[in-house]
Amino acid sequence: MHELSLVAEILRLAEQHALEQGAMRVREIRLEVGVLSGVEPSLLKRAFEALSMGSQAEGAELIFEAKGLLLACKACQKETEAKELSMRCPNCGSLQTRVLAGEDLLLKTIVLEA
Predict the structure, then answer these.
(1) Residue 80, phi then psi, degrees to nearest 5
(2) Start-to-end C-alpha separation, the chain
(3) Over the stretch 7-31, which tens digit does the pLDDT of each residue have?
(4) How many CA atoms lie within 13 A of 107 on its CB side?
(5) 39 lies in some domain
(6) At 9, phi and psi to the nearest 5?
(7) How far apart are CA 70 and CA 99, in angstroms?
(8) How many CB atoms lie within 10 A of CB 50?
(9) Distance CA 51, CA 44 (A)
(10) What's the Rg (C-alpha) of the chain?
């Protein structure tokens, strides 16, 4: 379960940020989850609840924002958000595409409480 290692790093970053800002607690963490990131939000949430116990982030709200699949097509030269999980260009049907977005897990914001 790689969610545990992801949550451990998210917590490390959140607590480091809280320390740098002189905050007492982490109130909210917002993540952008790409459709191809390999991250299962429900598992991430459970891991977060378990690992955050006793930390500055205990009880913090973990918010997920879904990020769709953005493709660049070499055949028609268009950048398009795919409506399906397919590497086929939605414009021309070509398979000569590359992923521009949708593979990442990004830590977008950390809301702190003084």
Answers:
(1) -140, 145
(2) 33
(3) 999 999 999 999 999 999 999 999 9
(4) 14
(5) yes
(6) -70, -40
(7) 6
(8) 10
(9) 10
(10) 18
Number of domains in the chain: 1
Residue 50 CA to residue 67 CA, distance in Å, equals 25
pTM summary value: 0.85
Token pair 């268009």 in the structure block, residue: 78
- Residue 40, CA distances (Å) to 2, 3, 13, 114 in order: 10, 8, 20, 31
What is the arithmetic mean of pLDDT over 81-100?
93
Measured distance CA(78)–CA(70) in Å, rounded: 10
CATH of the domain at 10: 3.30.2320.50
Q: Which domain holds residue 12?
A: 3-68+103-113
Q: Which amino acid is at 4?
A: L
Residue 85 domain-assigned? no
Residue 88 has a CB neighbour count (10 Å cut-off) of 15
Assess if residue 97 is contained within a domain.
Answer: no
